[in-house]
Amino acid sequence: MTKSIFGWIRSNWTFLAFVASVVSIWYVYREYGVSYFESFKTIANTKESARRYKNTGDELLLHAEFKAADEAYQTAVAIDPSFIEAREGLMRTQILNSIGSFTNYTPVAVEAKLKSLERVSPQDYLIPYIRGIIKIDEDKQDEARTLFENSLQKNRKFVGNYIQLGYLHLFKADITNAKAKFKEALNEVPDHPVALYNSGLCDMLSLDFNSAITAMEVASSAERLEIFLSLGEAYRNAGNIDMAVFHHEKARKLLDDPKLKDGANYSRGTFNFFPQDNKDQNTPKIFVQAVTLNHYKALINYALSIDYALQGKFPDANRLFSEGYNADETINGEKDFGCFYINRSDFVTRRQKTDPSVFRWFSEKRAALDRNKSCV
Questions:
Q1: Distance from CA of residue 336 to its chain's centroid?
Q2: Which of 98, 117, 140 is the last residue of a domain?
Q3: pTM of the entire structure?
Q4: pLDDT per position as a tens digit, 65-103
């Protein structure tokens, strides 16, 4: 009898092992709630989670939200290090974020990375876009325009091209075509803060300050330095100095905020000079760009100094002018934003009734900023 039992066991050991495995799996599941397929489920969930972050990064790229896209790709790669598409997305955003500042990249290094991307994805819409940004830095605007148009043909949903093409029109003070491009961006992403702000900037350059205020107030929820700066100017030029101070002080506080991030709270800003004659709405073909944080420190403190001078608060105006002056880079013996500051102060004194003491104050600052008499 015993021999026959052992013989049966030997003959059916595979079946018995299977039954034992099933029983043990059932017992573990009943006692601990852990399924035999738990590890497979975990792997599947991990891949799905990484995929969702990668898709979020792709969507943010289309919105030209490069900093946020970078964070989404980083999360995807952290969840699934083998996710090749997320790694490629991360490489794109690292390049895009590096070219956001003149000081953080070299064109040769960027071009090497772009060629690597080209081998993997030759039709990537971001490759000509990035090259277009470099051409702007090299002051090759016609070549930049061709590259942005090329990128636009590859992906018409990407708002970055519309915004950059709008900037190229602003460089030539072509306000009508600039606004048309920003409107195309808004058609793709309604209420896009940068596109909406720049549309308002076009209104301000057309001397329609109320329309500018309306657009920029909506965009100001994004809490960006360039928006606060221009919104304050729009209020000042509309005659509301208190609101100008309010928004310029918000910009100044943001400068010291530890949460301030390049790309998230500020990026390249293009600012055109105002017309010399109140009756002439043709803005001169002169512009400045703020790229670094120091640029914004100069412009924001200069702007506040104008506001406080108009209020007759000369000690505050002097202090802020000095801070702007110290942050402003000296080029060929003169301040980089000196002529721009003079243009802004001249514009407001022409448009508004100014006390003689205020006019004298502005005259003193003009002498400090235009030693070579080069500002027209």
A1: 23
A2: 98
A3: 0.79
A4: 888 899 999 998 888 888 888 888 888 888 888 776 555
